[in-house]
Amino acid sequence: MNEAPEARHPPAPRCDWAYFFDVDGTLVDLADTPAAVQVSEHLRDLLEALHECAGGAVALISGRPIAEIDELFPRVRLPVAGQHGAERRSAGGQSTRHEPAADLSTARERLAQAIVDKPGLLLEDKGLSLALHYRRVPKLAGFVHQTMDALLADVDGEYCLQQGKSVLELKPAGKDKGRALREFMGEAPFAGRTPVFVGDDATDEYGFATVNELGGYAIKVGVGDSIARWRLDDVKAVEQWLRSISR
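The structure assignment produced for this chain is given below.
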């Protein structure tokens, strides 16, 4: 992925834009395990204020299941896409869920057996996808890729592998954050607004591509090549940017 030639600090957010945020590494700092992340009350306040200011046009688009996202942000029922868009809840509360015909139970058992003697690896069962995390043991990245590649070869073609930061995930094919963002943009209150997507990971590049096509603001958090045309340094910088909202 090539970096956009003019990646720079984005302009102050506006109330008439449509906002889409990744969660881990974007709104909250990454942790050793998904369950260990911490969400500050200050961040919740900022998101709720933006949600009100933007007339509800604020959505979270994450690799996490929707149920987990709701637990992290319990005070307001935000529009949300979980598991890279395999499940989605609109601003009006309508839920959709893409469920491949293939059963992941055998794959789950195979992965659990494969890592039984590999302490530090974490198998996360999200329901529609399986993620193998190696953040605590980065030296096992090669083993994780070999194991997941072998698993994919034996699973129905309805699935694909998605690389993230120190994680490799088996997820439904044909679903990604860009598709989820485009679906939101076809609905109220997002339709007709300028889209903004803020993310930090390779999984967010799909969202950046869609926003670039729609003439919006694709904002990369942190270092690394990206097609995003704008950049914020870290999670703290995202919070500072949100506080700079122009009414």
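Interim note for the steering committee: The CA atoms of residues 85 and 179 lie 7 Å apart. The mean pLDDT is 94.
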